[in-house]
Design goal:
This is DUF4351 domain-containing protein. It comes from Microcystis aeruginosa NIES-2519. Helix 7 runs parallel beside helix 9. The chain has 193 residues and is an all-alpha fold. It is built from ten helices and no strands. The longest helix has 27 residues.
């Protein structure tokens, strides 16, 4: 039997054993999530990274690449990787130039690891689908707020191919006071140089 007067570290060991995971998750959420194999941890990490890199697109590209590589390294099934990637790709949209860099770096990684779970054809299809969904979201927001959306405006929105620009337009569709304000904003963004 241990003498309670000389057993100083057992209470600390007990506390660590009971509360260590809670401690790490509270004070070091990124590290806690990174150690977790649950797909939801990846979703939360993507959200946190999207918030953290909102103002720095270069950092966002790096974070998106790290999260995508993590999908492979966690050993998820092909279908899970594709679905999680779709979410990450939607949440962490990049300007066209950085998206192209991301694609090149991801292709290189896939070739090195021999893991092309997301083929370039699938990726292009997903991108087209995401662009179409983003366009529809902008138009839907305008229709909900202002009811009648001129067909010329719908045509202009349908020409936009940049997901980050469409995301921005969606925000403006929700916040601007009138359809003409939205039209002016769109014209400023896409006016020919």
């Amino acid at each position: 039997m241990t003498n309670p007067n000389t057993d100083f570290d057992t209470p600390w060991k007990d506390v660590l054993e009971i509360y260590f995971e809670d401690f790490v998750s509270f004070f070091f959420p990124q590290a806690h999530l990174a150690a977790n194999r649950n797909p939801f941890a990846t979703v939360v990490m993507a959200h946190l990274q999207a918030l953290e890199t909102r103002q720095n697109r270069k950092k966002r590209k790096e974070a998106k690449l790290a999260l995508t590589k993590r999908l492979y390294e966690q050993g998820y099934q092909r279908e899970d990787i594709i679905n999680l990637f779709k979410f990450i790709d939607w949440l962490m949209s990049l300007p066209a130039e950085l998206e192209q860099e991301f694609q090149q770096e991801l292709n290189q990684y896939e070739e090195e690891k021999r893991m092309p779970y997301i083929t370039s054809v699938e990726r292009m299809g997903m991108e087209k689908g995401m662009i179409q969904k983003a366009r529809e979201s902008v138009i839907d927001a305008l229709e909900i707020r202002f009811e009648n959306v001129p067909s010329e405006l719908v045509d202009e929105i349908s020409q936009v191919k940049d997901t980050s620009l469409l995301k921005n337009l969606h925000r403006q569709a929700i916040t601007l006071d009138s359809i003409s304000d939205f039209q002016d904003y769109l014209n400023q963004l896409i006016k020919p140089e």
